[in-house]
Amino acid sequence: MYYLSEYQTFTSVKEMDLHVQQHINAHYNELIQTDRDVLSLISRYCCKFPGASHLKVETIMKALSKSDATIRRAIRKLAKLKIIEKISFIRRVSKGYGANILRILPFEDKSTMNTRSVAESITPVSNPATQLEKQTSLSINLIQDTYDTEDAIKKGLITKLPERIGHILGAFFDMNTMYKVYGIMLRAKAKIDRSITFEEYEEEYINAILSVVNAYKRGKVKNIYGVLYAAISSATKRLYVTALFNDAMDR
Predict the structure, then answer these.
(1) Which part of the chain has CATH 1.10.10.10?
(2) SS3 assignment, position 173
(3) Which superkingdom, per the lineage (predicted)?
């Protein structure tokens, strides 16, 4: 694998580890645990030629006990965020495509403004209800009109959910209903693909939730639980089909 020296991006493992940590810090909110685990594994295979490794998806799958689709999604995300680069490699003997060369890219600190915006993104949203009010025309009183004891318990539940989804559900539902609604969402998603996570596709799932709630408030939906189940299933199915298509294109 001497050829990997042509692709290495760092002079030492210590330098590579520093850049990996900077990438993780800069994209804290965008990376889920699986993404971090994949990046960590790639970096462990990059020690001989710091920054470059010849690594198969199957190897990562076995090491992390994750599905093919999950690993490929993580690699695509890391590449999109300019954390790694995927380079197609052709074996000289067989003339066929071998495992991709995965290369960790140096972290580029574009500006102090970017650093500040990352710090702000990590800070919990102080007034999610204001944003939700603009989107749904619901009064902020939906959040505030609860008893103090229930509100404290409810906030505890919200912190256990994906951040933005937790705030969305907290704005529309009381504590007991939140438990039921989130359970319905989990079952609807699991029916299609358990490997797809709410954290990774928060925007898509939030849109599905808001569309159902808006329809319910307009009187167009009577059974909100059934319609929500169908909406989450539909959103998951779209994500699943898209992932299959992207995986086929990557092969």
Answers:
(1) 2-115
(2) coil
(3) Bacteria
